[in-house]
Amino acid sequence: MFRAFLHEQDDPDACYALLARDAVDQVEAYDGPVAGRTVLDIGGGSGYFTEEFRRRGAHAHLFEPDMAELGEKPPDGTVVADGYLLPLRDGVADVTFSSNVLEHVADPETFLSELARVTRPGGLIYVSFTNWLSPWGGHEWAPWHYFGAGRARARYQRRTGKAAKHTLGENLFAVHIGSTLRQVRARDDVTVVSARSRYWPFLAETVVKAPGIREFATWNLLLILRRCPP
Ligand SMILES: C[S@@+](CC[C@H](N)C(=O)[O-])C[C@H]1O[C@@H](n2cnc3c(N)ncnc32)[C@H](O)[C@@H]1O
Question: Which residue range or ranges hold the Methyltransferase type domain (predicted)?
Answer without folding.
Answer: 40-127
